[in-house]
Amino acid sequence: MTTPANHCRAPRSTLLLRAVATSILWQVLLGCGVSAVCAADPGPQPAADRPLFETDIEPILTVRGCNSGGCHGKSGGQNGFALSLFAFDPAFDHASIVSAARGRRLAPASPLESLLIQKGTGAVPHGGGKKLDPAGEDVRTLVRWIEQGTPKAGPDDPKLERISLSPAPRPLAPGETLDLTVTAHYSDGATRDVTATSAWHAGEPAVLDAADARVRAGAFAGEGTIMARYVGTIATWSTGIVPPGSVDAAAVAALPRPTPLDEPVWRKLATMNILPSEQAAESTLLRRASLDLIGRLPTPDEARAYLADPDPAKREKLVAALLDRSEYADFQANKWADLLRPNPYRVGIKATLSLDTFLRDVFRENLSYDEFVGRLLTATGSTWRDGATTVFRDRRSPDEIVTLVSQLFLGVRLECAKCHQHPFEVYGQSDFYSLAAFFGRVAYRGTGLSPPISGGEEIVTVGESGEVRHPLSGTVLAPTPLFGSALEIPAGDDPRAALVDWLTAHDNPFFHRAAVNRIWGDLFGIGIVDPVDDFRATNPPTNPALLDALVAEFRAGGSDQKKLLATILRSAVWDRSSLPNATNAGDFRNFSRHYRQRLRAEVLADAIDDVTGVPTSYAGLPEESRATQLWTHRTPATFLDVFGRPDPNQDPPCQRDPDATVVQALHLMNSTAIEGKIAADSSRAATLAASELPPDRIVEELYLACYTRFPTSSEREPLVALFAREGRSRRQVTEDILWSLINSPEFVFKD
Fold this sequence. Notes:
Strand content: 5-15%
Radius of gyration: 32 Å
Oligomer: single chain
């Protein structure tokens, strides 16, 4: 009796005929024999006489997308066939193709019948579709590799050292195209054109795109980077799309250069045919400086005094005075809390408060950046008294802490390398876990975590021993800096101290660059490398010379953050207007003008308190406390949540969304809490209305409070006229004007 399965199976003779017919078809397609090329159509020559898995087969799997995250490279593979993501583990991939599933994916006796080729060419059903051209060079290479016994690279085979892109970068005109060539360089001095088997990635496709080695410039001016990847090795090609014409050389030469930071910016802008905006008004710079350094608005009296001061050095004096104010420490600590503060329900309320106290003390004492990071990364002691230890209470294993440390203090997002080769960098698992090994001896005593109530005290110590192993090989890894040599750490010593020594050394290529880029990005709204914690070859700095100048200033000042801030605020780049000119309206990366930023949630909340004269009462804080003094994101505050305070359940580092939203606009217009502040009997509006001041002075006072400037005549006259209308009291008009100013972009944004 025939079973359903047997009934559906084709007769053996039919399968044999199919195999013969398929073999004949491949013979025709590939030419006279599977390893020869038809004389009538020679086609491309073989990439190598002896194809090797690492240098010839893996690139095919990568460039055709077989080992991508959406196909066989995803965790667990696809339909029983798994490859390492982007070929980061060639040994695993070779075994998966040659040996796994009883070797069913290859047919050594008839390479063309191999399932690997049959599925890739679409000869048999394949969920990923057709990936290989049956008559293409990829198939020829696969056939030769199978015929020759699926060889892998041996110890005597030349090693791939690097790849390069040619021709050299040059500016492109809008819409221009250019063909690039990828050349592989080997340890024996040989080179090879590997363009056809290289994968391409464009950082900003709208500006500069690449497909099959052809670069295409976008329609508008800008800058972009193209990456080519071959066998885990990458090369980048960066250029700018420059608008036609040229800028006035005399205008460029006349630009002010009060600091070493200005010349690199002006020089870069000249190459882009861009002139910077004019200097901003004094009132704008006063408001900008105050918000940048202490996160609060100047008072009307402070604004009047500064604007009336004829001293040409008044900006330097203003900056020095702001840096000495107590609000500086609260504001800077508030920003670092986003990067370090854990969920208090996970680590405990006391531990969270202890960390907050540590951060505020760092800025009150004006610790150098090097010392701040050193104390943080080598912290030991009680999580209730030694606040920096809270970071280690939250991140309890070396692989957890190293992702935070690398992102914050190296500007490198290593998290991808925890599981596989970083797709856009040269970092792999060995780099990740060797760096994590610096934290292998961190030990704990006392009460551990028991969320959602982790109230106990814990002691962070350094153990006599501790190790980190490679997750695949199980090899114990010695603490090793990125791109450095392994370090021998004596038993009982703290490897973290050696890490800090490497970090703070002046020849460290990451640490100070990441620090100054973060500070610059905070002031300007965009980093020289952006995101500010994502340094990589495919995300290069927009102005390397500016970054170098910042690092030089920072190191010369002993990594004193106040000194660097003072230098930046003295620069001509910082004092540019946000209003564009005819050349820089499309520039959002080169600092040709100031880029407006919405105020942080806490800063805006405090600003509303200041201009209304009615403070907010926050649970768990003394009366008159400001939002920048909050020590936990779990303090109830609807306004702060609406304006982008980080989710208290989110793990640090937290990145805030800087964009304005419709919900925020509606909240400002309709919030009963804000309306209550404006209409309170103790409010600024009530006080002004009850005073003897004439209407024009009331309008002036409100403008100074909200905008740090005097109203223009076109603004003053219609507002003053409102006081003469019937049916509205003096206080109601004053409240309406204040409400209008609070709901304006000029108030909500730092200009």
